[in-house]
Amino acid sequence: MNFKKVTVGFFAAVIAMTSVCFADYETPATTDVPAADPTPETTTTQPQWQDTETTTTAAQTWETTTTQTTTSYVYVPDTPTSSPTVVKLVVSEVKDKKFTAKINIQSDHLISNASISVGYDDSLIEFEKCETNDKAGGMAVDNAFSGKFVYNYVNADGTDFDGDYATLHFKVADEKLTSTVLYLTVNSLDDENLNAISNQVENGIVKYQDAADVQEDDSDYIEIDVDYSKYPIAPEDIGLTDVDSVTVANGEVLIFEDGKFQTLSTGETKIDITYKDGSVGHFKIVIKEPEAVKLESSEAEATSKAASPVAEKKSGSSMGVIIGVVCVLCVALVAAEYLMIVKNKTVGEKKPTDKDKDKDIHDTDESDDTNEAEPDENDGPDEVDDTEETDNTDDTDTEE
How many other CB atoms sit within 10 Å of the CB of residue 100? Predict the structure, then answer.
């Protein structure tokens, strides 16, 4: 029998019996940590943070460790998924010069408070009345004045109603109306905790008739003279303030970009301005050359005229030479014609001259005969008688 082995076995048995006798049967050897705070006997590691996803959401993780068991707790915050609340105006067709505009709200939140305004051109359309929808619950109050309508809604419990909250009735005030815009503004929109709700606004457009069916009347447009410039022109520089948007009829002479006008060429165009308060103005913009440019043009024209006398003188001399040549040709033609006429006349007068000569000779002979027959004054009466008798005798002889 080996004494050494017996001694080791004896001490092992004594230690085992001692641990069994002094063990605490009420406390288990292994425990799970509950959701509550750990017991003082539990060893807890420091909280640790780690990214459990590749998104922008951070997950909070910590571990609680006992003798044999480790339990992990993870906290993931909620990510908002709601879209902006849509607030819009639904405009009906115009019939018998009347139409409606409904305030429509589509929301993912409970609405406890809302203040909405509608701006319009009261020279084109006229507000008549407002009808609220009882299905929306709560209490509504509306106010209308020149060119603006305000709708206020209150519900202490909040409402999740999606649809038409109010119906506005309008009528056409101007027969020349083609179309106009109803401008919707959300002054406030709160949830049940009075937190602001993000929103998206859609305006309403009223279409009455085609522009081709309307005769233009320039009397409705206020004329504004603007000097042409290559630099942008602010609306305030031409007397227009609180401008929200501008519609230009002729984009070839004028455009409106980044809140300023830009002239492209001289000319004129009509513009429709919508102000920040919702009202509308009509203007006729006439773009002219600046006075400085006109003066430069006048000076350039004067310089051109001053430099042109030499050329004009040369041109005048040339014209004088041409006129002189034409005059000489005319004189030569007249002279040639005159010579021809004189020559023909001279040839024609030669024949009458010969005849006249013959006639003159004949007349001379007759004159001589007459002189011979006449008695001489110095002759006496007897000679006269003798002559008569002789003549009588001759006559008698002739008769016989």
Answer: 17
Tell me if the pTM is above 0.70.
Answer: no
What are residue 296's phi and psi, to 5 degrees? -65, -40
CA distance 363 to 357: 10
Token pair, residue 395, equals: 């006559």
pLDDT band at residue 387 under the 50/70/90 scheme = very low
The pairing of strands 111-119 and 243-248 is unpaired
Which band of pLDDT confidence, cut at 50, 70 and 90, is reported for residue 383?
A: very low
Closest CA to 171 of 96, 279, 280: 96
Contacts for 263-267: CB closer than 8 Å, 24+ residues apart: 263/226, 263/228, 263/229, 263/230, 263/233, 263/287, 265/228, 266/228
Name the range with the highest mean pLDDT among 272-276, 356-360, 371-375.
272-276
Would you tell me how many other CB atoms lie within 10 Å of the CB of residue 271? 20
Query: What is the b/e burial string over 291-328, where b = at least 16 CB atoms within 10 angstroms of the residue's CB?
Result: eeeeeeeeeeeeeeeeeeeeeeeeeeeeeeeeeeeeee
Local confidence band at 44 (pLDDT 50, 70, 90 cut-offs): very low
Q: What average pLDDT score do residues 73-98 get? A: 75
Instruction: Tell me how far apart the alpha carbons of residues 186 and 150 are, in angstroms, rounded to a whole number.
Output: 10
d(CA 230, CA 222): 24
